[in-house]
Each structure stands twice: as C-alpha cells, then as structure tokens.
Amino acid sequence: MTKTRGHSAAAQALESRPSAVPALHCPPKTGPIQLHMSGFCAIDFGTSNSAIALPSGTGVQLVELESGHPTMPTAVFYAVEGLGAYQEPQRSYGRAAVAAYVEGIEGRLMRSMKSILGSTLATQATDVGGGRSVRYLDVVAGDLRHLKTMAEHQAGHTLSRVVLGRPVFFVDHDAKRDAAAQAALEQAAHEVGFIDIRFQFEPIAAALDYETTVDREQVVLVVDIGGGTSDFSLVRVGPQRRQRLDRKDDILANHGVHIAGTDFDRQIEISSILPTCGYRGLGPTGREVPSKVYFDLATWHLINTVYGPGRAAELKGMNSFYSDPAQHTRLMKVIQQRLGHALIGRAELAKIAVAEGNDATIDLGVLKAGLKVAMKQADAIGAIDDDLERITCAADCTLAQAGLARERVDALYFTGGSTGLKPLADRIAKRFPTARVMRGNRFASVAQGLGLHARRMFE
C-alpha cells in the first residue's frame, strides 16, 4: 500500500469507502400474495462461486447445483465449435464451463461477471468467437436463469420472488455507479422471470447464519472475503432478535474494500508468472517495456481485450522493445493461443498452495516445455501484502465507524472463499485478541443467511 505522509494505514483505508451504506431494495410486505407469486428463493451470486437457498421445514436448504456440490463456480462457456452461421452458441455453466475451456473447445469462458456490474462494460457486447457477440449483462442474466432453473427443478414449482445478495459496495468511491450495479443485477433478475426482487448485504446474511448458533446476545464482526470484495459488518445478534424482520438497528457498522481473491491471483500472476513473458523486462536502451498488456492479462474480464486483431498486431510489432527475444515470443504465444485464462488459473492454484501453508511450483509448460517457476510462500505473501493490509485496515475502520472498543467484539465470523488464506485470517484475528474466532461454510454461509432473510420477507 502506498503510504501518505501524516496518514495512518487505517485512516487511508477509511478513505477508501464512502461512509454511507447504499440503499437496499426491500419494499414492505403487502398482505396476501397470489398463488403465482408463492415460490421464493435466495441467491448468492458471487464473483467466484454461486449458491441458492430454498425454504425447507423451519429453515432453508441449499440447492444441489452440480452433482455433490451445493455451490457452483460463477462461470459460463460459450461454445462455437462446429456451429453454422445462424446457430446460437452452446452454453455450459460452472465446473462444466471451466472443463470445456480447459479441453480447448473453441469458444469463450466468462468468469467474474459480477465485476462488470456498475461499469460501462455492462451494456457493451463482447466477442465469444466465430463472429458472434453477447452483451455482458446478458451473460449475467443467462447465469441467473440457469441458477433459477436448477432451483425450480428441486422446488418443483415456479420461483417468482428472490432475495439477492450484494456486497456492501459494488464500486468504490462512486455512489452512482454502485447504485447502477444493483440496478443492473435487478434488471437481469427481472429478465429471467423474477417478479419480486429484494436485496440484502452479503455480510449481514452471513450474520443471520451465525445467529442460529448463539444462545446469548453478542456483537459479531462478520468477515466476508470472496473473489471480488472484502466486506466487514459489526452486527448485534442474539436469540431474542432472530425473528425481527427489520434488523437495521442491529447493524452497528459496515465497511469494506473492493479487494479479494481475484486480486490475490492477479498479484501472484504479475509477480511470479508474467516476468517470464517480459513484465518489468528491459529493452536495448535499458528502458522498461510497456506494462499495460500484463495488467490486462492478469485481470479476468480484460483478458480477451488483448486478443483483438489490432491489439495483437500492435504487440507483435513491439519485438524490438525487448532485450530478451524469448520474453516477447512467450507473450505472443499467450496472445495467439489465448492462454491468458490458463495463466491466471495457474496463479490461483499457487495461491491455494500458499493458503495451505506450502511453497508452490508453477508449471508453465504451456509457454515452453519444461518451464517452471518456484514460488516461496513468503514471496507470495509479499506480493499480496499491500492487499492484505488494506483488507485488515478495513476491519479497523469498521470498528472506528461504530465507535466500539476492540474488547466489545465477542466473535469474528469468517465466511467467503478467500478466508481460507490463513495468513490473512490470522492477521485480522490478531487485531481482535479477545474475540472468539468462528468459521462458517466458506462458500455457503451467505446463501443460507439470505435464505433465512427470504423466509422472513416473504412468509
């Protein structure tokens, strides 16, 4: 993190998010609901993974989205291989989408679609191969439609009402874009057939899930770190509060930063993988080669922008910028063979090894036979240290917003896939030495909490 003279790290993190929490779309209950509106569900449409909760008995159950899995990677693959001029691309979702991409089927893999909400990309179209294009927002809607269909298959009836999770902030520093992001997600939900659409903050949903386990009133800091955002909420929970529909008085503070798991992947790729393709390499005059292409290659939703004919031709003509011709050759191989997502996948695997406390060997045989890069855990943590510090400072800022002493926090509740990164969880826990550390289902706690909230909203 870049330090500013006279400002503490916590103060800088506090400046990273507006203090006002965006409004949720939660209209009041309005009496009896018609039969065609009776079905409801809750969807955690995550940057990396998604899950759906349905009412079951007095609680909720998660939909089995794939065999043996209650969660599914938020991914869609548009296959265009062998299609005629007027045929629509064949779509696959989740693990099947990733597998189709890995198998080398001609087409386009789309991940981290949530990241485009609130950006100008949402209304733009993108090439999926074979001269075909699709709007980014239609990609989001298609994924929601698939999730809805799976839920309806398990429920046995149409689902017309939904509670959707949302991060505390889709977009940092820009309230209008943040509102636009929620509006875009709501539009996509309407397009797939949902009529009554409500929103709940993802970390608040996680607090509702945690609340089912407590037998006394507590103040819990929910630490929800996923693929795209790291959100913190100080929430008052307790057995006497569970049935209250309006919990806004129990929310003591919300804060967060738009940094999480995909950013860790990005930093690891930039620091350990892309130098083999010339990142921070020097030219014949000693000048560093242009770096923009490397940052685009390390960002999921920008990778395909590098493959366009004009951009590829420009980069090909830059061979004289490189002192080491092998670096430029590898860069062009990434572009010509569309290996950007494969490289970021290798960075993700390295991150997982680090999360488990191990060093990693990154296999880059796709660039050159036998090419491998050794990455020590300490080096990986160093590469993402600024991100870890900004996330940890966001926890401090949440406490500052509430005006609460650290000792008043009874528990830390960790949820979200990236809380599996032990150095990050340990760093946050050290800030709250008297708090009990609790862990929910990293991939399902938010969906379960959204489901509980949906029951209270719709029943």
**CATH fold assignment of the domain at 35-215 and 441-458:** Nucleotidyltransferase, domain 5
Q: Terminal Cα separation, in Å? A: 47 Å
Bin the strand percentage.
15-25%
> What is the structural class?
alpha+beta
Oligomer: single chain
What is the class of the domain at 35-215 and 441-458 in the CATH system? Alpha Beta
Query: Helix share of residues?
Result: 25-40%
Let me know the number of strands: 18
- State the shape: globular
- Full CATH superfamily name of the domain at 35-215 and 441-458: ATPase, nucleotide binding domain
Ranges where pLDDT stays below 50 over 5 or more residues in a row are 1-19, 28-37
Largest sheet: 6 strands, mixed
Count of runs of 4 or more consecutive helical residues: 14
Please tell me the CATH architecture of the domain at 35-215 and 441-458 by its name. Answer: 2-Layer Sandwich
Mean pLDDT: 87
Rg, alpha carbons: 23 Å
Describe the structure.
By secondary structure, this protein is α+β, with helices and mostly antiparallel strands. Among the domains are: 35-215 and 441-458, Nucleotidyltransferase, domain 5 (2-Layer Sandwich), CATH 3.30.420; 262-383, no CATH class. The protein is 36% helix and 21% strand. It is built from 14 helices and 18 strands. It has helices at residues 9-14, 94-102, 136-155, 175-191, 202-211, 261-273, 292-297, 309-316, 325-336, 340-355, 377-383, 385-402, 422-430, 445-458, and strands at residues 40-45, 49-56, 59-62, 71-73, 75-79, 90-93, 107-111, 125-129, 132-135, 161-166, 196-201, 218-225, 230-237, 251-257, 360-363, 372-375, 411-415, 436-439. Strands 1, 2, 3, 4, 10 and 11 form a 6-stranded mixed β-sheet that branches. The protein has a 5-stranded mixed β-sheet with strand order 14-13-12-17-18, with helices on both faces. A hairpin with a 2-residue loop joins strand 2 and strand 3. Helix 6 packs across helix 10 (340-355). Mean pLDDT is 87; it is low at 1-19 and 28-37.
